[in-house]
Each structure stands twice: as structure tokens, then as C-alpha cells.
Amino acid sequence: MDILLFLKKIKNTKIKIITRNIDYNTISLILNNKEYQITSLRTDLISFGRQAYVGLTKDIQIDANRRDFTVNSLYLDVLGQLFDPFNGLEDIRKRKLRFIGDPIKRFEEDYLRILRFCRFYAFFSKKNISDSLKNKFALKLNNIELLSNKRMKDELTKIFDNHNFHISLLMIRKLDLDRYILLNKNNRKNTKIHDGFKLDNFKTVKYIKTFGSNIINEAKLNLLSVLMPHLYNFDQLENVISRFELSKKTIAYYNFLRLIENLSSEIDIQTLLVKKNKNIKIFKIIWKMRNKIDCVYDSVSSKNRMPISWCKLGLFHILPFFILKELDIFNIKMPKCPIKRDDVIDICKINDYKQIDTLLFKSEEFWVNNNFNPSLEETLFYLKSTL
Asked: Most Cβ neighbours (<10 Å): which of 1, 59, 81, 153?
């Protein structure tokens, strides 16, 4: 069906329509907060590796010839009759991922297809990629930089959204693609081929993906932003920000991670191996992280305290994974300090903002140093004694 004719048919419905790719005879429909792409049968006129000029066709075979994998070349007509020119249905049943035609030619038509291969590999393929094909791909990987930041971000987001995303990451690593993902044609001066992922396995990121969605949402971040600092060293964070055009909120979170980077050297891991008061020890670490604005802890404004959600995510950068997993860190509840700003004002009869913050911090520090046990009355008594 012609895409313009289809648009007319749904024009007066309540369906949200996105037409940003209308030049490629493709539109998107938003239904139940999910995006569905609708497209005409097409033929590629000219391919550039990052985009293509397309024309319309009524021939299913011509449209199928331009697709990447056999599992993506199945068609149904209005009567439900299946057209399967490359036996893609059988490949789905056998969980076999095959390129249509020459894999290198498919890659040269659209460099994003190597990432799509890694994404689909987690679902379909039981067979590993050959060294011969890997070596052929390797000669072309530097062209990844030509892809737009948006397309890269969208594809990586789809990979992270998959249940078996760690399998995709393993394939990305096997292909050495992790060394090229951050290359950016708009930032060639600062982005170079590097060592790739810093992880030997992906158990930490898999745990965060599986159990940390509520904390990630609470932190007002997204999965890609949270996982990237686990995959790449901190010296690559600026390139991560540039490549995926990350938000100001994410940049602030990355700055927080840099602030706490050396905090692990101040922590006695052996004390955390002792079960007694283990939660208390973690609470104290979180409290220290919350106040890690700079090297001086006094006069820290409460409005600048780091969110608890950021601190929980930050713990995965400074503490061994097995300790955090054992504590079920995402569900752990941080004690609330009994003393509030108004209590300080009532007791001390002062209005100086910085002085109030200083006294509030001292009171909270007393409460923390006494294992979060002092009541409001005990904390206020301490505060009076300091005046």
C-alpha cells in the first residue's frame, strides 16, 4: 500500500503518527506507548552506508532483496497468506540468523546492520560467527563513525532493552565493535579507536538491568546512560556523552561518578565481609557519597545532596558486586535523619542560611556516627551542646 494513501485512511483516528521518515516512505505509529513502523515496499536506488535513496515497488521480491536478514523478510497479505522468499520462517524455528546475500555487501549498504546483527543474535543464533567473516567485518568497522548519533543511540537502546542483551554485548566484543562504537564523525579530534569494553563479563550490568529499573527511573536516567560507565572506563565518558547526545541530567550523574571514583580507597572492604552491622556500614558509605560535593564536608547545602538513587547506582562502581548483590542494594531502605531544618532554626534562633546548613550537617553527622540510632531529642541535645 502507498504510504500516503495509508496516512489518509488513519488521518482522523486517535493514533499518534510520526512522519519524520516520510522521505523514506516510512511512518511510525504510537500505540500503547510502543512505536510501530509502517512502510511501503521499496527498492534502494543509491546506498551510502548510513542512508539510502529509495523508490517504490510493488514487487515483494525486490523489497526482500534489500533487507538484512532472512528473519526480517517475511510478508503477509490481507488474507493472511505468507510470502517467505528466503525461508525466514524456518530460520526462526531453528533460531538461525542469516544475512540475505553477501553479509559484507549488506553491511556496506547500511553500517548500522552490524549492530542489528548483534541485537538479533541474542534471540536467534545458536551458531557463532566465523573468523573469516569477523575479519572481513573488521576492515569496515571504522565506518561506524559515519552513522548519526541518534541512530547509534536508538540501536544501543534497543539492545539494552532486550532480555538477553548480555549476549549481544558478548558478540559486540567478539567483533571488536566495542572499540568503534564511540567513534564520531562530528568529534573526530577527540574520538579514537580504543581498548573497548573494560569488563570480562557482564554480570554486574545484567543485575542492574534486571533489578534496578525502579532506581534508574527514580534517578531520572535511562538504562543506556547508567550502563555505559560500567562498559567503558571513565576517561571515555566525554566521548559517551558526545556520541549519544546525553542529557544534562546524565552529565551531572557522570560528574558525580567522577567525584566518588576514589572513594573505594577509603573503604575497608574486609569490614564489609563481616555480617554484623553490614547495612549500617553501607548506610555510612551512602551518606558520605551524598555529601561528596567537594573535599570539604561542612557547609554542604541540603539542596545539593546527591539523590539516594544516584548513590545506590554509584555503589556498583566502588564496591565488589558480590557484596551489593548479597545486600539486595536496590531495595535497601536508607534511615531518615530525625532532625530537620526547621528544628535547627527553632533551637538556634538564627536565620543565616549557611550557618543553618553547617549546624544541620553537624547534627546529621552526629546521628550517622552513632549508627543512625539517636532520636530527635538526643540529636537536638547534641546540637544545643555545640552552640
From this structure: 153
Whether 38 maps to a domain, the answer reads: no
187 in a structural domain: no
Q: Contact, 375 vs 368, CB < 8 A?
A: no
Cβ burial of 50 (10 Å; 0-12, 13-18, 19+) is middle
Give the separation between CA 213 and CA 196, rounded to whole angstroms: 25
- Tell me, yes or no, whether 357 lies in a domain: yes
Q: What's the pLDDT tens digit per position in 283-338?
A: 999 998 887 654 333 333 444 578 899 999 999 999 999 999 988 999 999 999 99
Using the 8-state DSSP alphabet, how is residue 99 labeled? Answer: B
What is the pLDDT at residue 294?
46
Q: Amino acid identity, residue 5? A: L
Contacts of 155 (CB under 8 A, 6+ apart): 112, 115, 116, 119
55 φ, ψ to 5°? -125, 170
Q: Please report the DSSP string for 243-295 in residue order.
A: HHT--HHHHHHHHHHHHHGGGGGGS-HHHHTS-TTHHHHHHHHHHHHHTTTSS
Question: pLDDT digit string (tens) for 60-90?
Answer: 898 888 899 999 999 988 788 999 999 999 9
Q: Is 131 exposed, middle or buried (0-12, 13-18, 19+ CB in 10 A)?
A: exposed
Question: Does pTM surpass 0.90?
Answer: no
pLDDT at residue number 282: 92
Asked, for residue 384, whether it belongs to a domain, the answer is yes
Q: For residue range 219-252, what is the model confidence (pLDDT) as tens digits?
A: 999 999 999 999 999 999 999 999 999 999 999 9
- Of 25-39, 114-128, 221-235, 362-376, which range is least confident? 25-39
CA–CA gap between residue 223 and residue 245 (Å, rounded):
14
Number of compact structural domains in the chain: 1
Domain housing 364: 337-387
